[in-house]
Amino acid sequence: MERAPSRLCLGDALSGGVRWLVAGAGFTGAVVAERIARTRNERVLIVDRRAHLGGNAFDFTDAAGNRIHKYGPHIFHTGSDRIWDYLSQFTDWRPYVHRTMVAIGDQLVTLPFNLDSLQQVFPGRAADRISAALVAEHGFGTRVAIGKLLDSPTPAIVDFARFVHENVYLNYVRKQWDLEPGELSPSVLARLPVSISHDDRYFQSRHQAMPADGYAALFARMLDHPKIEIALGVEFDDARVSHPTAKVVYTGPIDAYFDHRYGELPYRSVRFDLSFAKGQTSQPVGTISYPAAAGYTRITDLSHITGQTTGSVLVKEFPEAYARGRNEPFYPVPTPQSAQMLRPYMEAAGKLRGRVWFAGRLGDYAYYNMDQACGRAMALVDKQLAGAP
User: Fold this and answer.
1) pTM for the whole thing?
2) DSSP reduced 3-state for 77
């Protein structure tokens, strides 16, 4: 799919008036900017303090021809035909189904844990008994959160759930969030279900694929519109001073917009260590989780994801605390305490409605997948911005 590259107006975009100012060039901001330009035919300036489009989904090709996901692996999947069709305007797709494993002792076991995983780690008859109990209680083909299995009235299921919780989830969650599982919202463990089937796909979405030319090319095509100007390496506050009358869609951290007046919301960050290996793939599947390892949570072999054949690019992930100015805020921390801290910011944001809108993983302080970020942006333009004068 050949399209003209997007214009990158680093300096002159800050001069003159624009109708809309969008802060953040990740999925939420880019979709908002494209939708405003195309459906409202109004001038948009999209700014990002980083020197590239795509937010955390940004990728690039290095000198050796390896496609690198700068901020860790991003695998696209969605169950929405509308989101799939929308993004397909800007990219062709390379079919890809993500599969993962987890290291338990000296074994690599299918993840999400499924009926085949049972056969790998339990003696034959025990696995058969547990499988029968799971199917009888929840039905074949279902995916059940580990918390629900721990509350089962069936002892065999509870024993199984404890094994999975202790060997797969517990240490992983501790490293990822620096919290105990019970301190987090149940929605976190709900993202790590047990699959009562032989399905070894990590995602169940109807559409699963990777942008054929990478995410950076997708974003460049999306923002290639005569009504869109782009300013990279530019702080939002500087753009706001240059365009004081522009309406704002802000996708950065909501607490940062308000200068942290009600306290800093908690976020988690990740450090990514890259290594390179010969051969098309170095792992049997895209990602392997290491709950028992010191410091890191998982290793992804990007060659599975990108389809590259020049060699393997391995990405090791080390979760860490977010510190302003030192690293990036990747994940809002979903706890009852953070929800309470968020409340005054949401109230303050509501008072700005009509002039400023907040959206995205950081703007909404919500744990969105990429397709959910797209859907949020599309709904914002269709519903909330539709009546904006």
Assistant:
1) 0.92
2) strand
